[in-house]
Design a protein that fits this description.
This is FtsX-like permease family protein. Pfam families: FtsX, MacB_PCD. It is found in: Cell membrane. By secondary structure, the chain is an alpha+beta fold. The chain is 50% helix and 17% strand. It has twelve helices and ten strands. Helix 9 runs parallel beside helix 12 and helix 11 packs antiparallel against helix 12.
């Protein structure tokens, strides 16, 4: 019966390909859009994830996410270090400032401005620097006015130019020299990321009474991170959260304060609805045109259960083919755009493939149910009409 079901399915090539197209389009759209959405949300936490040495982030109690940090007092670092269970705590500056291209942009125009992200790491330990340097030496960051830029930021500021150390910029009327190029997780807005020592960052940043934005903390071995966060909060009145919790707080802010999840959700829902509509309608029309064949099979004594099995076989055959094509096209997109700087960090996750598989299964089942209902109430005598 399986062979006969597949023979009937492929007999009408137009409808057969139409059903596959509907399932392919739905699975491609759902997998692509959900993967883009998750990758985009992951970008909002890139700065947090790049500080791999830290277990806990300490900040002002009113800070809601990474880009909205209220400054701390310089004395707060000693207060946090005095908490039992803290192995070390260091300063971290994170701010968004303007940088002027002292050597001109791609058109050769000097004085062009770009908004960049400035990260000031601890002067002595350099905790917070990305671990992978493409060019340069971390020790050179000790030099005056030295900065390290990420690869995407370098291409953003000097497009088309090969990586070269010694590029000069101005930040807050202060000279900055690129002494290294590193790999870093791309940020949400694809701005260039500059790393420098904390003392240098205070010169590059616009003057304020307080400039310390975060304290990053390493817990002693065996100390529970959540318990240490509570002790820090009780003793310093500052907000302390684990690295993972801070990532989720940042993501939650973007989910609740922007229209990003609604827009992506609408697109994914449209993909599902269009898949159901195209596959369901085409599969139903295919069944209607084959009613006489089903009626003949029932007249020959084939049970309803066997006929349901034939329809489900047809449904899951086109579902598997369409799902495979959809996942393949989505994978080709992410593989093909992996080298585009603006799309760096966008991936298709295996969990998304499982979600898409579940959605395609629902589409196939819904499309099959319409056809099954028609065939179950079919009179075998229809074959003689």
């Amino acid at each position: 019966m399986i062979w006969l079901a597949l023979k009937m399915l492929t007999g009408d090539r137009a409808k057969y390909l139409g059903i596959i197209f509907g399932v392919t389009f739905a699975s491609l759209l759902m997998a692509h859009q959900i993967s883009i959405f998750i990758s985009l949300m992951a970008r909002t936490t890139s700065v947090i994830r790049d500080v791999r040495e830290a277990d806990i982030w300490v900040m002002d109690p009113n800070t809601r996410y990474i880009d909205e940090a209220l400054p701390l007092a310089d004395t707060d670092v000693d207060r946090v270090r005095s908490v039992a269970g803290v192995e070390w705590a260091v300063r971290l500056f994170k701010g968004s400032i303007r940088a002027r291209l002292a050597q001109g942009n791609e058109q050769g125009v000097k004085g062009d401005f770009r908004q960049v992200i400035l990260i000031g790491v601890d002067d002595n330990s350099l905790i917070g620097l990305p671990r992978t340097l493409v060019m340069g030496d971390i020790a050179d960051l000790k030099k005056p006015d030295a900065v390290i830029v990420d690869t995407i930021g370098y291409n953003y500021l000097w497009p088309g130019q090969p990586f070269r150390l010694g590029q000069v910029l101005e930040m807050n009327d202060c000279r900055a020299v690129v002494v290294g190029i590193c790999e870093a997780n791309p940020p949400f807005l694809s701005n260039a990321i500059f790393y420098t020592r904390y003392s240098n960052a205070l010169n590059f940043a616009p003057p304020e009474r307080r400039l310390l934005t975060f304290l990053v903390v390493k817990a002693q071995e065996g100390v529970n991170h959540n318990d240490l966060c509570q002790r820090i909060q009780q003793q310093t009145r500052l907000k302390a959260v684990t690295q993972e919790a801070f990532c989720w707080e940042t993501i939650q802010f973007y989910l609740s304060s922007t229209g990003i999840p609604v827009n992506f959700g609408i697109t994914v829902m449209l993909g599902f609805v269009v898949g159901v509509a195209i596959a369901g309608q085409t599969f139903y029309l295919f069944t209607l045109e084959n009613l006489k064949q089903f009626g003949a099979l029932k007249a020959m004594g084939l049970s309803n259960l066997r006929i349901i099995g034939m329809i489900l076989t047809q449904g899951f055959t086109v579902g598997c083919i369409g799902y495979g094509l959809g996942m393949g096209l989505a994978a080709i997109f992410f593989e093909g755009t992996g080298g585009v700087p603006a799309l760096k960090g966008f991936h298709m996750y295996w969990e998304i493939m499982l979600i898409a598989a579940g959605a395609v299964t629902v589409i196939v089942v819904l499309a099959s149910l319409l056809s099954i209902r028609k065939v179950l109430f079919l009179e075998p005598a229809v074959v003689f009409r």
